[in-house]
TrEMBL record:
It comes from Luteibacter yeojuensis. This is Uncharacterized protein.
């Protein structure tokens, strides 16, 4: 079986969490790293990410996540047009890039729905906003 042709600017359907069926993944950037190979920088849009730090307690998107090809292969279903032009992911990428280059960050190798669950657990463990 050949590898899917993932490309910057694509929007994809994926195996979502329950009640997030309208969610889409936007491929924002693809890097090639010596240690990790292909690193896909994606936004996960139209989600209900629990975040006690925001008014209303829900975050509608995960603007940046660095994931492996295996993560996409386990998650993505079909191309669903062109990604939106939102540039909000770039801030998260910049933070990740600096931490990655310093050896303080990595990439996710989980299915995308599990990445969202993990982020929710990390945010919840950070305690209530002050």
């Amino acid at each position: 079986m050949s590898k899917p042709d993932y490309a910057v600017g694509q929007a994809w359907t994926y195996r979502t969490r329950p009640s997030e069926e309208a969610s889409r993944v936007a491929i924002r950037r693809i890097d090639h790293e010596p240690e990790d190979g292909e690193v896909f920088h994606v936004s996960i849009l139209d989600v209900k990410l629990r975040n006690h730090r925001l008014p209303g307690g829900l975050q509608p998107a995960m603007r940046h996540a660095a994931v492996s090809r295996a993560s996409l292969d386990r998650s993505l279903l079909q191309v669903d047009g062109v990604a939106d032009g939102d540039e909000g992911w770039r801030d998260g990428y910049g933070v990740w890039r600096q931490a990655y280059d310093n050896g303080d960050a990595g990439i996710f190798d989980l299915p995308l729905a599990e990445v969202l669950d993990y982020i929710e657990r990390v945010v919840a463990a950070s305690g209530e906003s002050r």
